[in-house]
Amino acid sequence: MRSRIPVGLLIGVLVAGVAVGVGELVAFLVRPAAAPVIAVGNRVIELTPESVKRWAIRAVGTDDKLLLIGSILLLLALFGAAVGTLALRHLAFGLAGVGVLGLVGVYCALTVAAARGTDVIPTVVGTAAAMGALVALVRSATAPAEAPTAGPARRQFLQSSGAVAALALAAGVGGRLAQHARFDVAAARARVTLPPPATPQTVPVGADLGRSGVPWRTSNRDFYRIDTALSVPQIAPTDWRLRIHGLVDREITLTYDELLRRPLVDHWITLCCVSNEVGGNLVGNALFRGALLADLLREAGLHPDCDQLVMRSSDGMTIGAPTGPIMDGRAALLAVGMNGAPLPVEHGFPARVVVPGLYGYVSACKWVVDIEATRFDRFQAYWVNGGWAPNPPIRLMSRIDRPSNSESVSVGETVAIAGVAWDQHVGVSKVEVQIDDGPWRAARLATVPSTDTWRQWVYPWTPEKSGRYRLRVRATDAGGRVQDDHDRDVFPAGATGLHAVTVRAVI
Ligand SMILES: Nc1nc2c(c(=O)[nH]1)N[C@H]1C(S)=C(S)[C@@H](COP(=O)(O)O)O[C@H]1N2
Ligand SMILES: [Mo]
Question: What are the boundaries of each domain within the chain?
Fold first, then answer.
């Protein structure tokens, strides 16, 4: 063989594939979060500076997880290719390279939040299998020196490569399927029947303006998803426990059945992410069903000096919520249902917290398993560690959903400019629309069941001549405060500024 480099590259990529594939297979015996790529990915998320995370969310939105996994696999293939070429010269160096990679995996599996000792097993076994594959492939590639002709030797090497590739693929795909079969809680979720709420709620009359850009109710499928979970936590309802402890008189441990036996309420709540840009869609409105968190905390005998509730999810997320809003009588829910169904797994099944008037990162802990009553001066939760404000109020915000940016409209024809505005638990009293630099004109508002939701608005407008128009919107809250028009970044306490779209009127 003249050039050995392609052979080395191929060997390296295959060996990396074996590590990943066998790791996935063994993760079936441990748990999905222990799969090497997932463990490394979760650790990378933790170690990535907040500014890079924000850039990623802005650049690719909710595809950030795909981007991360793709990058890890690509890096792994590149590193593998280097190791493969090295191994053809000195097998020991190649093996050392695989070992280094294994150590990185072990480090990640052991140090990631909510790690368990057994999480290293898939990485260790995957690394060992990769070393075995490396030895076998290097032997098969170097044996031809003694072979009579290059032809059969080459064929033999290609055959071994093919076998290794098939093995890696089968282990990976099989492992993933087996993980799903063993750990997925979709079936357990489907068996759950939620008890009805004390007072059933429907879509409030007049809440849906119909022609608005987005429906009043965001369906579970369309509801934005923001979290750090590379593999969605799978918690069977029978295994779920919530422990309430810390600055309380009596610790409480709650099971799912006990939670369902508590009085449940249905409440429309608009949930919003602090990373939502002006005009963005990281906001949704759903009918949440749950038990009042304040009742539980009172039963536990919450101490008056507790000003922060630190909520932990099964995957080690920490979310610090201010105690005040949770105890002030609003519908702060330990939620089990969303739009009439048990919480979707991606949205926190079996249970999560939702608090009207607080951003998700300071309240809405999904897959919650632990609530510790503590103080802001004693504990800094995950996002606050990354520099986000510890306890910011939700920003008064309005958005134009229709027409969309750069849409064409017809001269002389009336278009419904429509959208939503929100300032949860404060309320929106007025929405105004401005065409170019014209006067601000009041839009028609839909009725709302409470101040805890967004409010749809619509403003009919007839462009009179052709050309470009800039449409802007601003809201006024229930206290008469007009929306801040100063442009501010989402970091560290939520974006401000007015949403504008440009349309073209044509004849
Ligand atoms: N366990 C866990 N809960 C979490 C998060 C997370 O990363 N992990 N993200 C929070 C953030 S930043 C937001 S905005 C909301 C989003 O909830 P959703 O995905 O149901 O829309 O969940 C919050 N709860
Ligand atoms: Mo968020």
Answer: 4-183, 241-385, 397-506
